[in-house]
Structures are given as structure tokens and as C-alpha cells.
Amino acid sequence: MATFSALRINKKGSIEELHIEQFPIPEPQADQVLVKVEFSTINPSDYLSILGRYPSINPPLTPGFEGSGIVVSSGGGEFADSLLNKRVTFRGQGTWAEYCLIPALNATPLLETISLEQGASLHVNPLTVALFIEKINANSSRAFVQNAAASSLGKQFVKWTQRLGIKSINLVRRQEQVDILKNLGAEHVFNTSEEGWKNKAKDLATELGAKVGFDAIGSIETNDLFEIINNDGVVYNYGLLSGKPCEINPGLLMFQGKRLEGLWLSAWFKEVNYEKRLEACMKVQENIDILASEYNQTVGLDGVKDALASYMTSSTNNKVLIKTQLS
């Protein structure tokens, strides 16, 4: 029986649990496809799933939520069959492997102009940014505030909203991160280690009409966003980079009408139909010139453990591409 290699954890809590195991190559059922995975990536959500902080994801499991590859078999169904032998970008649990079995509706054909390397990172970050833009528009906000702004996602957010004419207020912790964003054309960047930054950011948010904030960190940084955004605004939390609960001054909720909501891309995928997901995926591909990931290193499955350890020490210029085929 033919087998394939996959990274595996048998209990949650530590990246030291990561190891390579062999599994029989599965047969797709109706409306499923089998993807020969060529590339995957490392995202903060992968680290959190290994630590056991994601709901409904329990070991034993193969990590990884996105990737690219070639559909090598179909379990039947019109759409599944239409993907056969095509290059695809896809989402699914278990992409840190040589093969991945997924619902056909989780795959999107790649445009000819997009490489498999770039196709590996077209879901988690770019589609999250697309969801952010949807929230900005839904709140009739002319601007937004984000922390962790020099992360891969943060930089994509800056570039896409620049193209759309939406103003951004960007929070980072080091001067080198200020320089990175300024070089991208970001007009408003604040170093939160400098004295007086918050009052300046708040005044700017009032001037620009920033009613929404996006929080990747949690802890006291959530409250910073609450203090900066306009009254009756909303902060969307989508990350746990601090590993701590969100902290909020209750007075900002009671007296200024501000609110906190959670955003999770997987929940959005369940809420919308395939046509809307496809539209979003194609919009990402059409904007690949500004949404392409900048990979800092490429590793094989046997190098993921070390890459993951260094990845979590910095959120700047740290995007890792995984070449999943061992042979």
C-alpha cells in the first residue's frame, strides 16, 4: 500500500511533539479531492493549534491550515471532477503533509500567473484581510487602527487598503517596524514604546474617522485600541499573540458605546456560500502584486520544528514556506 509522510502531534502543548509519521494515501469520497501538496506555510494559528488553544481541534492531528498543490484524484461530483490535475490553492486541516484530503469546495484553481509557492499562502492572511475590509465597510468607517501592523498580515492589510483609499493607523513596537511600514507607503505609524504615542493616535483617529480596530495581540493592547477608536466603534480581536486575555476598561464599553467582537476566518467560511468564497479567493489572486507573501525561509517537513521555534520569537519578516514533498 502506498504511503505518504505527514507531520504529527499526538498530544497538545509543545512543538517538541512534532514528528513525521507515515500514513496510507487515502481515497477521496464523493465531493472530495486528494491534493498532492507541494507547499504549505506557518501561521500563528498553526502554533495555537499545536498548543491546544483552538476549539474542535484535538490531537492526534497533522497541523497546517493552508497550502497549494495538484489535485491527483477525485471522489466524484461535478466540481470535484473539474479540479482533477489542476493546480490549486486550498484550505483544510493537515496541510503539513505530502497529501491532503479535502472537500472539493475548499479548493480554488490557481491563475496561470501565480506560482505554487505563492499559492500556498492565499487563504489564511489575505482572506482575513478581505474579511477586515468587509467589516470596515459594514461599519461605514473611513479609517481603521491595527496592532501588530508589521506582521505579514498587517503589511498586506496596509497595502490593500491603500489601493482602496482607506486610511490606516498602524501600531508597532520598534523603530525598525516603523521604517518597514513607512517604506510600504504607510502614512500613519506609531511606535508604542515612545512616550505620548497614544494621545497622538487618538487625535488622528478622531480626525480620520476611525471607528474600527483590529487586535492580533490581546492583553492590554486590546484596551489601547479601545482608547483610540471613535465612540460607538468596534474592536475585532482575531489573534492571541500575547497568550493573555483581552483587557478592557469597562468605562469604554458603558460610557462610549464601544464593543468587542471576535473574528475567525473559519467561522466566515461556514457562514458564506461557495460563490462568495470563490469571489474572495479570486479577488486575492487578482491583487497578488500587493498580497504576495515575502518568505524569509523555505524548509522541508523535517525542518518545521526548528523553523516554528524561531517563527514565534518575531512577528516581522518571518514568513516560512514549507516544501512538503520529501522525495
Automatic annotation (TrEMBL):
Outline the extent of the Enoyl reductase (ER) domain.
13-322
Q: Please state the span of the N-terminal signal peptide per the UniProt entry.
A: none
User: What keywords would UniProt list here?
Assistant: NADP, Oxidoreductase
Pfam families per record:
ADH_N, ADH_zinc_N
Q: Which GO terms describe its molecular function?
A: NADPH binding; oxidoreductase activity, acting on NAD(P)H
Q: Which domain of life is it from?
A: Eukaryota
SUPFAM superfamilies according to UniProt: GroES-like, NAD(P)-binding Rossmann-fold domains
Entry keyword annotation includes Nucleus: no
PANTHER family xrefs: QUINONE OXIDOREDUCTASE PIG3 (PTHR48106:SF18), QUINONE OXIDOREDUCTASE PIG3-RELATED (PTHR48106)
Protein name per its UniProtKB record: Enoyl reductase (ER) domain-containing protein
